């Protein structure tokens, strides 16, 4: 029986040190070389979601730097849609290339996806999602002066980044279309950058300034397409308890209740591992199916014997 897996691709799947188009396409080609293992296995169907934090922040800056009355900067939701096109294009090209050189026959499509959020979500009052480039302590005053309304946070010792609101996904507007394509066996790229954030009001759908966490959108998508598994691919093979401390241990298999206890004990940082763990917990709780967090370069081992951090129902 075909196994349906929703995969959330972390930042390292797209962007390494060099943010040029060529370097990002090269990183995505390497990602596709890992993902093709799923399609070559023959009995796996994929729905891929990806992040857009660096890209959406960089594109906002480009928009502002070149803007004029005749050529105005676009709002954040629209720029988010642009990054879905940008990364969706690169990922579809890369997958199609791997499919063709291996003589496989899967079809790939990118779906521009809108994610409904709640206007009353407290996230709109407390921005947490880091986007765009890192700034050093020395660079920070100048960028703050240029954009006085922006908020910045220190990001895990790597510098400072702008943060924007990141509301939770409520539903996905293209759910039925995504379902139909998945049902038809298409390898889908959907919910990129967490989906374009929209609110529904008096029959109208309007974009709203935010960037949704792709791990939460992946969990929502996984529920909607009746996935057998949610797979979150990041830079680490296992989620760790006591991360980076002498007492660190790797979590290989854990029940959803035990994982929630680790979240409640403050084991996972908000800007990085916590949303992944919370998204995984939400999928396992809502579906009774497993979620796995592991690294992109561990895909073969994961396929062979399920290696990674596996979160299972109680
Ligand atoms: N408890 C933990 N276990 C493993 N990794 C952790 C933990 N806490 C924080 N991390 C860090 O979180 C990173 C994943 O978050 P992030 O880089 O934001 O994800 P993404 O892959 O979506 O870009 C890991 O590569 C690791 O450096
Ligand atoms: N939208 C989103 O979650 O992007 P990153 O994974 O790049 O932060």
Automatic annotation (TrEMBL):
Catalytic activity, reaction form: hydrogencarbonate + NH4(+) + ATP = carbamoyl phosphate + ADP + H2O + H(+)
Recorded GO MF terms: carbamate kinase activity
Gene3D superfamilies attached to this UniProt entry: Acetylglutamate kinase-like
Gene Ontology CC terms, in alphabetical order: cytosol
Pathway(s) served: Metabolic intermediate metabolism; carbamoyl phosphate degradation; CO(2) and NH(3) from carbamoyl phosphate: step 1/1
Presence of keyword Transferase: yes
CDD domains: AAK_CK
Residues covered by the Aspartate/glutamate/uridylate kinase domain: 3-295
SUPFAM superfamilies for the chain: Carbamate kinase-like
Pfam families per UniProt: AA_kinase
Kinase among keywords: yes
Alphabetic keyword roster: Arginine metabolism, Kinase, Transferase
GO biological process assignments: L-arginine deiminase pathway
Homology family: Belongs to the carbamate kinase family.
Protein's recorded name: Carbamate kinase
Source species: Weissella cibaria
Taxonomy of the source species: Bacteria, Bacillati, Bacillota, Bacilli, Lactobacillales
């Amino acid at each position: 029986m075909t196994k349906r897996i929703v995969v959330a691709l972390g930042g390292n799947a797209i962007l390494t040190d060099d943010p040029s188009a060529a370097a990002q396409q090269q990183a995505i080609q390497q990602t596709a070389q890992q993902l093709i293992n799923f399609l070559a296995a023959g009995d796996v169907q994929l729905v891929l979601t990806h992040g857009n934090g660096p890209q959406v922040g960089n594109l906002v800056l480009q928009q502002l730097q070149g803007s004029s009355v005749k050529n105005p900067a676009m709002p954040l939701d629209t720029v988010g849609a642009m990054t879905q096109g940008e990364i969706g294009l690169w990922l579809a090209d890369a997958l199609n290339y791997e499919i063709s050189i291996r003589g496989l026959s899967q079809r790939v499509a990118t779906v521009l996806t809108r994610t409904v959020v709640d206007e009353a979500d407290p996230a709109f009052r407390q921005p947490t999602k880091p986007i765009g480039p890192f700034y050093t302590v020395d660079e920070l005053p100048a960028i703050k002066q240029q954009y006085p309304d922006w908020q910045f946070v220190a990001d895990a010792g790597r510098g400072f980044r702008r943060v924007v609101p990141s509301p939770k996904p409520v539903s996905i507007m293209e759910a039925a279309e995504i379902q139909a394509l998945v049902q038809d066996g298409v390898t889908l790229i959907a919910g990129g950058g967490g989906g374009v954030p929209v609110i529904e009001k008096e029959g109208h759908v309007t974009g709203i300034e935010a960037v949704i966490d792709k791990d939460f959108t992946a969990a929502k998508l996984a529920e909607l397409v009746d996935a057998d598994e949610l797979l979150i691919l990041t830079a680490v093979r296992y989620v760790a308890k006591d991360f980076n401390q002498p007492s660190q241990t790797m979590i290989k298999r854990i029940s959803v209740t035990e994982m929630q206890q680790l979240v409640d004990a403050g084991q996972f940082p908000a800007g990085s591992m916590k949303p992944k763990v919370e998204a995984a917990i939400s999928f396992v709780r809502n579906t009774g199916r497993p979620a796995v967090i592991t690294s992109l370069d561990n895909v073969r081992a994961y396929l062979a014997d399920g290696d990674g951090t596996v979160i299972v129902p109680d």
